[in-house]
Amino acid sequence: MALVVAQEVPTSSSMAVPHGPAGVGQARHRMREQLRSYGVSDSVVDDAVLILSELLSNACRHGRPLGRHTDVGEGDVRAAWRVDGTGGLTVEVTDGGGPTRPIPATPSVTARGGRGLNIISALAEEWGVRDSSSGEVTVWVVVSEGHDHDHGHGSGHVPGLDGLDFADAFDDAG
Predict the structure, then answer these.
(1) Does pLDDT of 147 surpass 70?
(2) pTM given for the model
């Protein structure tokens, strides 16, 4: 079934998000509303919103804000998403770089964090990291309808998260 758009609508969006937890909910809400208005399926929207949340959390925890700011709570990171002609969705978050590269961790069962990129690996068709000459780091993720979550970039299995549905946790405007 082809998606037919009867009106001219943007198929991409970019926004500055405050470096810190304050803007994450607003970004999730905006993404959810825009992707639904583009006609993106609910399953892809749910995956994309969870991915955006994980990427923004990682950028605020591990990366510096964009520009001259260096302290948490000052400056912004950039969130962007776009739908291509085939219905594929790319989500990107750009920060000012940090002391480490974004790589999936192997947290202990009791660890409070460290699962974000594993969750992204399980949901994504593919993902990667792009560095700019100015020191900015962008983590990008491709999400598509019908992607088999068990055969993506990662193993598709996130230990300790079996049977959990995260979509409802991100429905609020934050």
Answers:
(1) no
(2) 0.74
